[in-house]
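The material for today's practical consists of a large collection of protein records. There is nothing in a record beyond a sequence line and a structure line. Backbone structure tokens are a discrete shorthand for how the chain folds in space. Nothing more is needed to start thinking about how sequence determines fold. As an example, a complete record with its sequence and its structure tokens follows.
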Amino acid sequence: MRSNPLALSLLTLVLSGCGSSRTSSPTVEPVVAPPPTTSAAAGPSLPTPTIAALPTGTSPTPTSIVIVSDARQALSIETTFGALESVSIASLDTPLGVLDADSEDVDGGYPRACACPCGGPCAECERPMGRSEALAPGARVTLAWNGLLRRYRSDARTGSCFESFAPAPGRYLVRVCTGRPIEGEPGPCGSAEVTLPSSTPITIHVGARESLACPLEPALLERAARAALSTMERNAIVPDRIAACRPVASCHAESDLAYGEDVIRGAAYTRERGEPPPPPGTCVLVAPRGDQLLTRVFLPLPDGMQGGERFDHVLDASATRILSVRYEQ
């Protein structure tokens, strides 16, 4: 969430008025991408303490990703911005944040995602007409991958730019989602845990719908928390206030997220449910939503004041891509 990287460079800020945190669960709105720019001077990146520095001194190993349909119905693979648009990757050993499989292909004359390489020229392009590749039941498709990963960061020149890098040796989760999840038309997903670098083709089966429920694995909660916090940091969203947030999260029913102030403060609300209060610095709550994760960064107002600001990020079931965001006060 695979996410549209340019869409993440401008986050939707919704101010619905100050007040109590006991509000209904918000709807989630897609973000809007800013127009590309062609300025020549590169700018510094914002600090991102919730994610690790990119590895250096490694070489990519090209391989292929084989998608196999286990579904009973026809599926589609989004290819509007290139063959690997449906692929996202997460490191299981190092907190590198949300990653994409890099692609050097040009699909229909449009560079993949119309994105800007950090320190390089930006593509002058408009979003092309949507494209997808059909995947019949039992069929498979093989996608070439150059072995590089991409991570996006803030940039004073472009707002957002990507850095390509070869993965350090270790365990990675490679995930494929069919349909058009960012446009609200998700299809079945599939994942495979692999060791990279490797020239062995990576086979991923898709077809079964996922359904999440608490409790969730601590590693999944941490990955969701880091994805949300690093996205806010990259876009300079209240950087002074989230500096003390720890990249950990607790799992709750979505209805409980309306009472985020009580949960975060460790008030009687948690004691009534037999839940231990969160450790100091916790500001992220996660709620399963079918095959998605609603990840809320909740920043209470100062003591003596009710309510707070909430920053919602909807992620896929493996917390490898951000599908949409919505910020409220």
